Amino acid sequence: MIDVMLERYLADPVEPELVMALTTGAQACFDRHRVTWQGSLLAKDGHRLVCHFRAPDAEAARTGLRRAGADIRSLWTGTVHDAPGLEAADPLRANVLVERSFTQPVALEAIQRLEDAGSACLQNHRVRFVRTFFSQDGRRMICLYHAPDAESVRLAQRQAGMPLERAWSCQPILPPDHARYHPGS
Predict the structure, then answer these.
(1) What torsion do the CA atoms of 179, 88, 134, 2 make, to the nearest 10 degrees?
(2) pTM of this prediction?
(3) Share of the chain residues as helix, strand and coil, in percent rounded to the nearest 5
(4) Domain housing 96
(5) Does residue 72 lie within any of the structural domains?
(6) Could you tell me if 160 and 122 are in contact, meaning their C-beta atoms sit under 8 angstroms apart?
(7) Domains in the chain, number
(8) Strands, E, within 44-164: which ranges?
(9) In angstroms, rounded to a whole number, what is the distance separating the alpha carbons of residues 121 and 102?
(10) pLDDT per position as a tens digit, 108-127
């Protein structure tokens, strides 16, 4: 099984209940293609949505999501990397999402070294790294943080010299049986 991310910008804001209803309503289609919804992150303003799925391969994910009615233009495969010592409840506390894009492929280790070097900046702003989703092609990265607000994350990232496309406040939306939500597994 592989990890698959679907990113959406929504012109009209959506509520968490709609995301849950649409996702659970597509369950039969997901089951047919062996796609498992792991959870979603919805911007507080309802305009951005990132969904995490697991599937046997990229084509199964594309087919299952397309047949479920999803716009798959921003679908990518990647890997999940948790913060050292991550506890089961930590991903539920993540409240800020950072997007990073790279014109040339980067190595995850290179970005991790930058973040490690800037750990004091994160601590100064009470920002705690939770999880990273890193694209297979090395050009896209989504990172989750627990912080007072998105501005604290922006400041800490800039001071640490981290690449930053955008940072936004988010809320997790989990499958009804969220006990199965183990993105790092």
Answers:
(1) -30
(2) 0.90
(3) 30, 35, 35
(4) 2-173
(5) yes
(6) yes
(7) 1
(8) 48-55, 75-82, 96-101, 128-135, 140-146
(9) 22
(10) 999 888 888 888 988 999 99
Q: Which residue bears the tokens 């501005």?
A: 151
Rounded Cα distance, 69 and 71, in Å? 7
| pLDDT (tens digit per residue) in 16-72 | 999 999 999 999 999 999 999 999 999 999 999 999 999 999 999 999 999 988 999
What stretch of H or E contains 169? strand 166-173
Instruction: State how far the Cα of 141 lies from the Cα of 46, in Å rounded to an integer.
Output: 21
Give the Cα separation of 53 and 41 in Å (integer).
12
Contact in structure between 14 and 42 (CB atoms under 8 Å): yes
Has residue 59 been placed in a domain?
yes
Three-class secondary structure of residue 70 per DSSP:
coil
